[in-house]
Design a protein that fits this description.
By secondary structure, this protein is an alpha/beta fold. Helices cover 38% and strands 16% of the residues. Residues 1-30, 102-141 are annotated as: Disordered.
Length: 388
């Protein structure tokens, strides 16, 4: 999931429509209660990847009472159409809830500030986009459209984007899918200016020649440069980007006779940041260069569609809520969940659960094991070989 900074909340619970008729059960299909139910359900369906607070939903749909909205949300949760997170109370729609909301009559005006198709129904997810390594990227909602489309639009408008979020949420995959002409600098604490501008390399037969770096190549060819893990790079090194990003659109290469390079149309810079990773520092100078900051989180609906069992997704959602609250230090993201599916298909469910617990950092392993056990009803210990 991708959300503009600051990240929004997310939806989660509402009563179930009666089968066939498309109206809520238990008397919710008529009168004021049915009107409110439809507004709540349809609003949550517009934000399938978000976990929303009751007050956020109440304000968004213009309901007069948060208490009435809360009651509708609890009915949705009881019907399995939403999940209910507590402390504070927050709700997110389930796939069953999405399907049920699609059958609701459009009697109530809908609030569709994002993800609207403009035709009354929810947009279907676009076809997967191939990445350079041959794997497929599944687009996620962003603003009024889908992340790949919106990133391309921001490029045409020359609006720099900083992607931030936990490792494994698909930041790099998203950029690779959006821009086939991508060049990448993988940032570390050892990244130097030459990694951007270029350096002299030995040539066969003796001597050296200057080989321009990815920043220069992207500027000259009008390509996209992704600075991955940018906040691990020393700030004095990152400063090489700034003249290329401001109105000048130029860089100077001191090591090559102070050669000046001018950016051509199409040149664009995207950066990635993993908050909380040791050594990652988002300086004001870097943050101010990027007009849009996008919070990238795991798309739980996509995880379910790709075969991750619902109890495992539910455990991951709880762990991510704990991570946000600071009560644990790690939570699985889409990368780990897809790895879970691979292990399950090869070694079975028990081994996959044990492996997911085992890959957690030592100081989070008890939290992960407890969450997985609670949601799957299976005793779990980290995967290990026995004695000889």
């Amino acid at each position: 999931m991708t959300t503009p900074h600051p990240p929004a909340g997310s939806p989660q619970n509402d009563p179930a429509p009666a089968s066939g008729a498309g109206t809520p059960a238990t008397g919710a299909g008529s009168g004021r209660s049915g009107y409110l139910y439809r507004k709540v359900a349809l609003h949550l369906a517009d934000y399938p990847d978000q976990i929303l607070k009751v007050g956020e939903i109440t304000r968004a749909i213009g309901a007069p009472s948060s208490g009435a909205v809360f009651e509708a949300l609890k009915k949705m949760a009881a019907a399995g159409h939403a999940t209910h997170h507590r402390n504070p109370h927050r709700f997110q729609i389930t796939q069953a809830g999405i399907d049920a909301a699609g059958a609701l009559p459009p009697a109530a005006p809908r609030t569709r500030s994002s993800g609207s198709s403009g035709g009354g129904g929810r947009q279907s997810r676009p076809a997967p986009v191939p990445r350079p390594n041959g794997t497929l990227y599944h687009p996620r909602r962003l603003g009024k459209g889908w992340d790949v489309e919106e990133l391309r639009r921001l490029r045409t408008q020359q609006v720099p984007v900083l992607l931030y979020g936990p490792p494994g949420t698909g930041k790099t995959a998203m950029v690779e899918a959006a821009f086939p002409d991508l060049l990448t600098v993988a940032g570390t604490g050892d990244t130097v200016v030459d990694d951007f501008l270029g350096s002299y390399n030995p040539v066969p037969g003796g001597g050296y020649e200057f080989v321009h770096g990815p920043l220069v190549t992207a500027m000259r060819q009008g390509r996209v440069l992704l600075v991955d893990d940018a906040t691990l790079i020393p700030p004095r090194v990152l400063a090489v980007l700034y003249p290329a990003m401001d109105g000048r659109g130029t860089v100077t290469i001191p090591a090559h006779g102070n050669e000046t390079v001018q950016a051509v149309d199409g040149f664009y810079i995207v950066a990635g940041h993993n908050p909380g990773v040791h050594g990652a520092v988002l300086t004001e100078a870097l943050a101010s260069r990027f007009t849009v900051h996008l919070h990238v989180t795991t798309d739980w609906d996509l995880a379910r569609q790709l075969g991750v069992p619902k109890p495992v997704v539910a455990a991951a959602i709880d762990l991510n809520a704990d991570l946000a609250a600071g009560t644990t230090v790690w939570a699985p993201q889409l990368r780990e969940l897809l790895g879970f599916v691979t292990v399950r298909d090869q070694l079975g469910m028990s081994a996959a659960l044990a492996n997911l617990a085992g890959i957690a950092p030592q100081d989070a392993r008890d939290d992960v094991t407890a969450a997985l056990s609670r949601h799957t009803g299976t005793p779990i210990t980290a995967l290990a070989l026995g004695k000889r």
